Amino acid sequence: MSDTLADSRPVVLTGDRPTGPLHLGHFCGSLRSRVTLQHGHDTFVLIADAQALTDNADDPGRITGHVIDLALDYLAVGIDPSLTTICVPSALPALCELTQLFLNLVTVARLERNPTIKDEIQARGFGRDIPAGFLCYPVAQAADIAAFRATLVPVGADQAPMIEQTNAIVRRLNRQVGHALLPEARALIPASGRLPGVDGRAKMSKSQGNALALSATEDEIRAAVRRTDTDPDHLRVGDPGRVEGVVFTYLDAFDPDRDTVAEMKAHYRRGGLGDTVVKGRLEPVLLDLLAPIRASRAAWAHRLDDVRDILRDGTRHARGVTQATLDTVKEALGLYRLAP
Ligand code: TRP
Fold this sequence. Notes:
The chain is mainly alpha-helical. The protein is 54% helix and 6% strand. It is built from 15 helices and five strands. It starts with 10 loop residues before the first strand and ends in a 7-residue tail after the last helix. Residues 13-17, 46, 48, 51, 141, 144-145, 153, 155, 159 line the site of tryptophan (TRP).
């Protein structure tokens, strides 16, 4: 069975909550590396619907309504279903069973110390009314990662504590059963860091209204570029400017012509390069980046039956993989199993 394939390719796993359209921050944070990694790795992508319910229990439709949208975004950026398994965790019961076993390997105090969870509790204003499922979602995510035997997890920096938590659980289980039953995973965090929002705030996020969706129209792209700042303190063209603002950050992230960007940055720092020229470069860069993604998304949106087939086939495949891991864990723990 696949769980004992010592010579199998490294497994890459990642996921996104289906809470809305993916944006440029996702693209530079993890989508781009997934598209590259799908060659040469066994790659799985989760449309993390069960996890998204942990802070949307009052309105499941907000999540379920975005599952297909997320699949369209994936297909549009070049995640190829013949290379990557796209699957839906709510249809993978082995993940719940593994989560249940993992919950015994972590303390509530440890969960409460998780810095990402702490930030999210504050951002969502839960106060003391934290849904238990929310506090425990890092354990469910550990089960996601372990169930697929993933060793590489391409994610944004905010997800690093989730990988640490996964490895803490995996180590504890491995110690308990006396051998390396499950592999530890490594977060693959982009060196470029987190992409700021179009308003210059540190994080691009739909809820903060500063995101540029991958599916944005040309007008939306132009409007987003108008909102960006090159250097708000650069008042006269002849003055030296700072290149740490949003416009240069985006050019660094998305302009394929590195030399021209380097020249422009040097010129801007010296003084003599106007903000409108710099912004004037960003607009076509973003239009060119997003045009093929938008076109591909529109083409897939005309083939929704095929998209549903891709999710069904991917989820079926994932069922086998996750069940195999669960079986080995149960067996190692000596849990009761019905004879077939
Ligand atoms: N927590 C991730 C996010 O909010 C989504 C996710 C769910 C995930 N399961 C995962 C990421 C497994 C990596 C691996 O974006």
